[in-house]
Amino acid sequence: MAYKSTLLRSSAVIKKIVTIHYFEYMSDFSFPGESHDFWEFVCVDKGVIDVMAGDKKIPLKRGNIIFHKPGEFHTILTNGTVAPNLVVVSFECNSPFMRAFEGEVLSVQETETALLAQIIIEARNAFSGRLDNPYQEELVRRQPSAAFGAEQLIGNYLEELIIHLYRRYFSGPEQISTGRVTDSSRHGDAHNRIVRYMEEHLGEQLTIETICRDNLTGRSQLQKIFRKAYGCGVIDFFTRMKIDAARELIRSNQLNFTEIADRLGYNSVHYFSRQFKKLTGMTPSEYAVSIRSLSEKQPDEP
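^ thats the sequence. predicted structure below, dont judge the formating
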């Protein structure tokens, strides 16, 4: 038999990455704005922001993503109240399909959110330095400790992200067929319902028994769902949710640490501080200073 190979065609090829950032902004952060000769997208992971794209002011909420085309002036505006978390990635891509993204505000779904998370994970594997410094202009390779294939995976995940968004927003649904199944979708409505339940009871001291009773779920099944989806038990996941909320409240700069601890259901600010340091590696005071120093840093400072 005479086999013939098929050269695979690529629709969106990314060979050069410029920046990869995951920012936890203070609520009063401001950025003077910039333009450059490569693409950049901003995705809101938490909170709300306004962006300037050219002369347009565009509001973005959690899950929104916007692409800034090469040469477009853009900046980020916080509202002084809500402290947002943002994923910002800039890259070079010459695909003509990228023109479809110009001026569009899109929303990421579960698949795209997972891809964004993988980009951040592999960026930490590939590059040294902090990903939360909004003024870092160059990615420095980890040498010789970079994880095998990390840079290639960044490109692959970024290309896959663009393909998924293009298919969903700019291709006809009859053209799309995908077999990707995520852990969360595999667990279905029960998983999402329990996460929403915990979000609604973030200021309480939930136990496994309470969660099981209120969600009509067995203990073993509950633990299985969260270990498969997140690699931890349900109470550990709930604690992470509390500390994530605490970080956002600290950056919002509206409450002191005692008030934050009380709002999140901790009996004492000391226990809250111990839990915070256990999960973040910093005390609440150290975290506040660290984030504020980045937020207040000027672009021309080293």
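The chain has a mean pLDDT of 88.
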